[in-house]
Amino acid sequence: LQLRQWSTFGTLEVIPEIESVAPAFSVVTEDDCEILKIPAKEYAKLKLEKKKLESIQKLELIRKCPYYEEWPTLSIYELIALIKWKKFPPGHVIVESGSIISFVAYINSGYCNVYRSIIGFVKLHSNKMKKTRKLVYMGRLKEKESFGEISVLLQEPFTCTIITGREVELAIIEDKDLWVA
Fold it and tell me: How far is residue 141 from each of residues 55, 81, 160, 161, 168, measured CA to CA in Å?
């Protein structure tokens, strides 16, 4: 097997110093090369530090959402453990009016437009009227705002359609995780 630029080898897991079942391999360089060595223990420290920073980011995001400002820290930490990050492109329909949303969302970056679905009449060329469904712009959900709590907790249909205005990064908690917690 020949390794090329950006190839990796080894393991980032700490392996106990007992006899390994897997055979040991050697890497021999044929030319001068640079190798970046990351000790497994250092990698574990980096992973832990990343996890801490992500927890702080999630905590700050939830704390800045108006409905959660007064929540006890312990309750917020329970939410933090359930959060997953998701990105959506501009123009993506996150939830349609009339459906029950399957997650609670906290907007970390970007914004979403909120529309109400209404039935209106359109005049046709033959002087007849036709019913048509239209989306009417109601407002905007910005960074540090949340949505979906009522729909998820009470299992009630969403009354509006939410569409991303530009790329949006959401911290989401799926309904199945809320019921487990």
Answer: 23, 24, 12, 12, 11
Per the structure block, which two tokens stand in for 98?
Answer: 């009339």
Q: Which domains does the chain have, with CATH numbers?
A: 85-181 (2.60.120.10)
Distance CA 60, CA 108 (A): 10
pTM above 0.85, yes or no: no
Q: Which of 54, 114, 52, 44 is nearest to 84 (CA)?
A: 54
Tell me: pLDDT of 151 over 80.
Answer: yes
User: What is the distance between the alpha carbons of residues 147 and 105, in angstroms, rounded to a whole number?
Assistant: 5
pLDDT tens-digit series, residues 102-120: 999 999 999 999 999 888 8
Half-sphere exposure of 84 (CA within 13 A, CB side): 9
User: Looking at this protein, which amino acid is placed at residue 71?
Assistant: W
Q: How confident is the model at residue 144 (pLDDT cuts 50, 70, 90)?
A: very high
> Do residues 166 and 90 make contact, with C-beta atoms less than 8 angstroms apart?
yes
Chain-centroid distance of CA 96 in Å reads 19
φ, ψ for residue 57, nearest 5 deg:
-60, -45
